Amino acid sequence: GGYVLHDVEGENLNIVSTGSEVQIAVAAAEILAKEGVKTRIVSLPCWEVFDAQTREYQLEVFRSGAPYLSLEAYSTVGWQKYSHEQYGLAAWGASGPYDKVYEKFGLTGPNIAAVGKKVVDFYQKKGGEVISPILHAI
User: Which of 38, 32, 115, 102 is nearest to 70 (CA)?
Assistant: First the structure.
């Protein structure tokens, strides 16, 4: 399923991720907190199980109010369902020690914090209510 790993009230940003990327999301949230950007972390290890949970629970995890940035070390395909913005690889990556590969592609706490700030800035300038990415008319 999915759950809120780190909750804050009045969040400016939500980062949704799974697996090894969650630690990167947490590192980014720690950096953002020092800069005054309140960040919730959602872990979503199994889309199918999450989609089978009650709508009420889904909307507790993916509440409205702040944009969602997904973080994925591979393709971002499918994350559009759970996030307003996606960060990951547009194509298959590279071989090598994971820390070197992650650094090359910006899959680090500091870079995701910088990306998160861009997302927050964009939605603040855009104005209006930010609704949950799982809410749709059809």
Answer: 115
Identity of the amino acid at 38: K
H or E segment to which residue 116 belongs: helix 109-126
C-alpha pair distances (Å), 29 with each of 39, 86, 109, 116: 6, 16, 8, 9
Q: For residue range 66-85, what is the model confidence (pLDDT) as tens digits?
A: 999 999 998 899 999 999 99
Pairing state of beta strands 68-75 and 3-6?
Answer: unpaired
pLDDT in tens, 102-116: 898 899 999 999 999
Cα(68)–Cα(64) distance, integer angstroms: 9
